[in-house]
Amino acid sequence: MRLNLLIPFFLVLACSSLLFAQDETPRPLRIIAFGAHPDDAEFQIGGSALKWTALGHKVKLVSVTNGDIGHWGEAGGTLAKRRTAEVKEAAKRGGWEAEVLDIHDGEIMPTLENRKTIARLIREWDADLVFCHRPYDYHPDHRNAGLLVRDAAFMVKVPYYVPDTRPIKHSIVFCYFPDRFTTPYPFKADIAVSIDDVMENKVNILDALESQVYEGGALGSPETPKKRFISDPVRRKNFLLKSWTNRHSNIAKKHREALLKWYGDEKGGAVECAEAFEICEYGDQPSKDRLLELFPFFGK
């Protein structure tokens, strides 16, 4: 009789332990990146995004414009729909989410309305890490997209700013994509991530952005698809792998010091392809331990 009375007690205890264990499950990181056009975020952070999603973290890539003039041979709504379909396919291959805002290519302005849109997106994603262009880039869309994200960095925590969304209570780290410009100051890599292990996968994702990587985007020509072997699936992938390996190899060489810092001399010195990021002065200024939590693939 006493044993029968004890059984429900042990069942309750077991269920309570299970619920407690579930509560102890770490929350997946939530990363959102803002590119000015439907390709920018994929180009800049696609390798790292693959590494986060492989570990079960949540990634969203946002294009702040619809890319509707980003091609030498077509424009308008047809191109916008095509480029949206391209980033959606890239997202499907990469395991993340993608969104394209309905702002005309070449026409991003740092308006209050646009800043509120960016703030809402960061809040709705409940972001831990936010990426964007530096506001010193060559393209006005890149500069203004970066400015909008940077200007939202404080406002996302203000309770009565865009009160239709919940303010973010936790710390957020904002990071810049790299660029080659030196005025008012050059990009400085605070973080460099080896993408050697996902380089081919990144190329497979970029392969979905056909209008840009094979047809040349806004600065291409009718000859570009031929030069990039667009009609031959094998040769075009080889072209893409070679060109993007070169690009990321240059990043690794340029930011070797950051690779050595995060991977150590032996592993950091052996990295061939990398992505690099600079921590924005706005938002949280994380400790090294916090960065190891946010970038949980160093040393792996």
Please name the CATH topology: Rossmann fold
Sheet with most strands: strand arrangement:
3-2-1-4-5-7-6
Assess the beta-strand content as a share of residues. Answer: 5-15%
Name the CATH superfamily assignment.
LmbE-like
Class of secondary structure makeup: alpha/beta
Largest sheet: 7 strands, mixed
End-to-end gap: 55 Å
The helix tally amounts to 11
CATH architecture: 3-Layer(aba) Sandwich
Provide the gyration radius in Å. 22 Å
What overall form do the CA principal axes indicate?
globular
Write down the secondary-structure element order. HEHEHEHEHEEHHHHHEH
Question: Average pLDDT value?
Answer: 93
Summarize the structure.
The protein has 300 residues and is α/β, with parallel strands linked by helices. Helix content is 48%, strand content 13%. It has a single domain (30-285), classed as Rossmann fold.
Task: Reconstruct the topology from this structure.
Blueprint: H1 2-23, E1 30-35, H2 40-54, E2 58-63, H3 77-94, E3 97-100, H4 112-125, E4 129-132, H5 140-155, E5 173-176, E6 191-194, H6 199-206, H7 210-213, H8 224-227, H9 233-254, H10 256-270, E7 274-283, H11 288-294
Parallel strand pairs: 1-2, 1-4, 2-3, 4-5
Antiparallel strand pairs: 5-7, 6-7
